[in-house]
TrEMBL record:
Superkingdom classification of source: Bacteria
Name of the featured protein: Acyltransferase
UniProt cross-references to InterPro entries, sorted A to Z: Hexapep, Hexapeptide_acetyltransf, Trimer_LpxA-like_sf
Pfam families, per database record: Hexapep, Hexapep_2
SUPFAM superfamilies per the UniProt record, alphabetical: Trimeric LpxA-like enzymes (SSF51161)
Amino acid sequence: MFGDKVRIYPGMRTETQNGGKIIIGDNVSIGQNFHAVAVQNKLKIGSNVTISGNVFISNCDHTFNEENLLALEQPLIVKDTCIEDYCFIGYGAVILAGTHLGKHCVVGANSVVRGDFPDNTLLAGSPAKVLKKFETENKKWVKVQEV
């Protein structure tokens, strides 16, 4: 399901299985070679989101507990994946099953993202961690201190 004013560059690939749904909001820009997979549950991309090239987003992962089965034959772990409004996803990022990005999140290039991230955060790395938080009252990014 696609909203209004969705811009898609060449090479987009989407896969849905067993009732999976990919929902894309309004005014979304999707870079070249985007790949999205939704199995059973939802994969939601909010409105006003920019996704750079070569990004992969999924709502499922393979288990690897059966030694006599190929990886693709292993059972799946399926969890809703959600990117809220006004996010920016950097080039080559991987957004894994069960991830929730709050509004106005920025994901650094080549990051591997899994987890729940609050609004107005900048995250990067493999695995991705919150590096900065946007202070709306001061309109500036502030470095997050390591614990």
